[in-house]
Amino acid sequence: MTLDMPDALLSKGPAVAVPARLPALPEFELSGKHCYLIGIGGCGMSGLARMLSSRGAHVSGSDKEHSPATADLQAEGVAVGFDQHAGRLPEACDLVIASAAIRPDHPEMLAAVSRGVPVMNYAEALGRCMIGRTGVAIAGTHGKSTTVAMLGHALIQSGIDPTVIVGATTGHLARPGGPPTGFRLGARAIPEGPRAGEPGVLVAEACEFNRSFHNLFPRLAAITSVEADHLDIYGTLDAVVESFREFARRIPPASEGGKLLIAHDNAHRREVTAGLECEVHTIGFPPHADWQVTYDPRRRQVGLLHKAQPHAGWTIDVPGQHMAFNSAVAAVIAGWLGAPMDRVARALSTFHGVDRRMQMVGEKRVAGLSPSDRNAPPVRVYDDYGHHPTEIEVTLRALREFERPEQHKPWGGGRLICVFQPHQHSRTRFLLEEFAQAFGDADVVIVPHIYFVRDSEIEKTKVSAADLVDRLRKRGKQAMHLYPFDAIVEQLQNICRPGDLLVVMGAGFAAAGRPAGASFLACGLLPVVLTALAFTLASAALVLGATRAR
Q1: How far from 305 is each of 310, 350, 414, 441, CA to CA, in Å?
Q2: Mean pLDDT computed over every residue of the chain
Q3: Residues ≥6 apart with Cβ < 8 Å to 101
Q4: What tens digit of pLDDT does each residue of 35-54 get?
C-alpha cells in the first residue's frame, strides 16, 4: 500500500538527473517533517530512522517488542512505542514508512489510510534517500550483507566516509567501543580522492524479495548471483531473472557514470545485461572475466586481476571461496568510488565478518573424559544465517575445508554436525531436492520444524521437516527430525565428541528471537552469553558450554 506524497513533502529544488526511463524525482527532503516508522527496530529500518533524522526529520516509530536496536534509538532521542494493536499514530504525522514485514491490514497502516497520511515502504524510502547521493546497491541471491559490510569497511578505511545500511550487524560499522550495528552515517559529500566533492556515498543491500529493489536509484551496482528463490513471489526462475534485469535497468547510462558489476557465472548475465545502457563489467574465477578472482584456501589469499593483469591481493579472515568472491566485488566497487587499492586491500585483510555469517561463537571441551584425554580437542561451534541450498553447500564446504575436523577422528569425533532449520514451507517445498543435495559436507544433520513465516496454512500442510530428513537418509546421511529445541540440545549433549564441528544454520532461529529455555541451564554446563538474538547463539553455545571465542 503506497500513497503518492504531496508536493509539500518534496524538495522545491531541481530534480536529480536519472535515466529517461525512470521518473525524475527530487531529493528526499524531509527537514522539519514528522515521520513515523512501523517496525523501527529492524536492521534496515533503524538505520533508515537515523538517516531521516540526519536530514532534519522528526522521527518516531513502533515495534512489536523491545530490542537492543529500539533501546539504542530511544537513547538517541527517538520515541519508540510497543503497543501496535491500538492503531494510534502521533498527532503530528506527515509520513508513515513501514517495514517489509508489515501487512496492509496492520492497525497502524489502517490508521494512516484513515487519516490520509502518505505511506511508503522501507525500500521506497531507501530508494528516495539515494537520490542526490552516490548510490551503491549490492544485489544477488547470496552474499549481499557480507559484501555491503566489506565494501563499507573498505571505504571507511580509505577515507571515503560512506553511509552504509545493511541487513545484519557487524563491528566494522560500530562507533568506537560500541556494539555491532547494521548502520553507519557518513558524509554528505565524498571528502577525499579523485571523486572528492561529489555527493556522499550511500551503500545498501538491494533485496529482490517482493521486487523491492525496483525502488532503488543506484549509480553503481553489483549482482553477485541470480538463482531460484522467493518462488512464492516469483513462481519461476525466469521471473526471477527478469526481475534482476529490471533492477539493472535502473542504473543510469554510462554517460552519466552508471556501472554494473555482475558475476561472470551463476547470474544469468546475458539475459540480465541485454540492452543495458550502463557500463557492464563481469567478475569471477574464470580467466576470461573482466575482473578475475583467484583464491588459495590454505592461505586464504585472494588475488584480483583486471584484463588479465594483476590488480590487488589480500588475505581474508573469513574462509571460503564465496567469501573471496564477495571481497573481490567489494574491492572493485571501492576502486570505482576512488578508494586507493592498497588501502582497500589492507582493509579487506582486517575484515572479521558479519554476525550470523559463518560466525565462530565458541568452543567447549567435552566433559567426562579420562585424565589421559585431557588434551582432546574441543567441539567448535559456528552460527550461520544460510537458508538457501547454495548457501548451505558453500558454507559447509568452506568450514570443513578451513576447520578440517576429520583430523580429529582419532579422538572419536572429527565430524561436521549441522543443525538446520528450514525457513518457509514454500521455499522448502520448491527447493526440496536441492536442499537434500546441499549437505554433502555434513556427517550428521538435525532438522527441527520448518520456520513458519509468510506462507498460508494450506502451504504449511504440503511439506514438513520429515520430508527433508527422508531425502537426506536416502542419500546416506545420518539425519533426524527433532523438536522442541530442548530435544535437540539433549541430543547434541549425547552425540558431540572431541574434535567435532557444530554448525547451526537458518534464518528462522534469528527471526524467532527465542531465549534459551531453563532446561538448557539444568545441564550443568557453562553457558555462553545468554541472549534472545538467536537459537543458534543461545542454545548451541549453551549445549556445549562454549566459552566466548576471540
Answers
A1: 4, 21, 37, 31
A2: 85
A3: 39, 42
A4: 999 999 988 899 999 999 99
Among the listed ranges 13-17, 76-80, 494-498, which one has the minimum average pLDDT value? 13-17
Contact 193, 239 (CB under 8 A): no
Name the most confidently modeled range: 28-32, 261-265, 349-353, 535-539.
261-265
Distance CA 447, CA 432 (A): 13
Q: 544 pLDDT exceeds 70?
A: no
Residue 96 has pLDDT above 90, yes or no: yes
Cα atoms found within 13 Å of the Cα of residue 353, Cβ hemisphere only = 18
Contact 548, 528 (CB under 8 A): yes
- b/e code 110-128 from CB counts within 10 Å (16+ = b): ebbeeeebbbbbbbbbbbb
Phi-psi region of 100 (alpha: psi -120 to 50; beta: other; left: phi over 0): alpha
Helix (H) or strand (E) holding 271: helix 269-273
Give the range among 7-16, 138-147, 480-489 with minimum mean pLDDT.
7-16
The residue behind cell 521506497 is 124
Q: Would you say 257 and 17 are in contact if contact means Cβ atoms under 8 Å apart?
A: no
Closest CA to 162 of 336, 34, 285: 336
Phi-psi region of 7 (alpha: psi -120 to 50; beta: other; left: phi over 0): alpha
In tens, the pLDDT along 477-503 reads 999 998 888 888 888 888 888 889 999
Number of H-type helices and E-type strands within the chain: 20, 22
Cell 574464470: give the residue.
286
For residue 145, give the H/E element and its range.
Answer: helix 144-157
Spatial neighbors of 513 by CB under 8 A, at least 6 apart, are 65, 532, 533, 534
21 — pLDDT class (breaks 50, 70, 90) = low
Nearest Cα residue to 421 out of 530, 364, 503: 503
Lowest-pLDDT choice from 39-43, 107-111, 426-430: 426-430
Q: Which three cell numbers stand for residue 325?
A: 568472491
- CB count within 10 Å of CB 456 equals 11
Instruction: Say what angle helices 341-349 and 144-157 make with each other, to 10 degrees.
Output: 120
Q: Tell me, what DSSP letter sits at residue 536?
A: I
Per-state percent for the chain, helix, strand, coil, to nearest 5: 35, 20, 45
The helix/strand/coil state of 22 is coil
pLDDT value at 396 more than 70:
yes
Task: Determine the residue type at 38.
Answer: I
C-alpha cell at 244: 534482476
